[in-house]
Amino acid sequence: MSDLELDSGRILNEGEEIYWELASTGAGDNRPVVVLTHGAGGSHAIWYQQVPALGQRFRVITWDSRGFGNSTCATGELSPERAGSDLAAVLDHLEVQRAHLVGQSLGGWHINGFALAHPDRVLSLTYADTVGGMWTDELRAAMAEFAKAGGLGGGRTVPLVGGHRALWPGTAARDRAHAFLYQALGSFHSPPMHRLGEVTGWTIEHDQIARLGVPTLFVAGTHDQIFPAPLLAASAALIPARFVEIPGSGHSPYFEQPSVWNDAVLDFLDRTR
Fold this sequence. Notes:
Elements (H helix, E strand, L loop, with lengths): L4 E9 L2 E9 L8 E5 L13 H4 L4 E5 L16 H14 L5 E6 L1 H12 L4 E7 L8 H12 L20 H6 L1 H10 L11 H4 L5 H5 L5 E6 L7 H9 L4 E5 L6 H4 L1 H15 L1
Helix pairs in contact: 2-3
């Protein structure tokens, strides 16, 4: 196992400070780059179970999108196009020309904002429990049903300690302390959750991603209430893309079943070489 070094910093882009971290083996590490992009309520810190694993084969970049973690949102502009611009600025700063892109939930919109603006810089795309703007009627209906039940703010009763509606209830039952960490990771900042509709309202067609001609993976948790796995499988088939379903997890398999998630993503990335 290689020892990893962690660099971090902030870059200025379009009036915002964007925070980034880079895990690598140090100077001279020219391995391919994987960019991990967090979802709503998350930050670069959510990937603590991925960076050490993926870092054995790749350089790994994590970053905070506008209004999340250590990044600012002074301009109030949250669109996927602006996120794509921020990510491009991070990669330019780190002198990375092309990268594998992974987007979790809201991060799917952000990597698509980058991919459509910079198609020549994309090595592969991984959509982790997300539609990334590629809505179908069925997925819209599922989202409406989830929202009608209260969304992340309601729906089903969860434990105050270790309970979260983005997690499958079995996750807390399996390891309450680990599930509580999921709550804690979101407590260090106050992201603009009330404005996420400005991002999720952005819509693109599956053909726009298919035309990029890059390897594509969809990952879904069996018990995801927000983007149900069967509907993501159907969406993946429209590109077409590889699809992996991860049992024993809800909307956040990267957190709930990290070893399985890591193996699925690494297997996909290895196939792209």
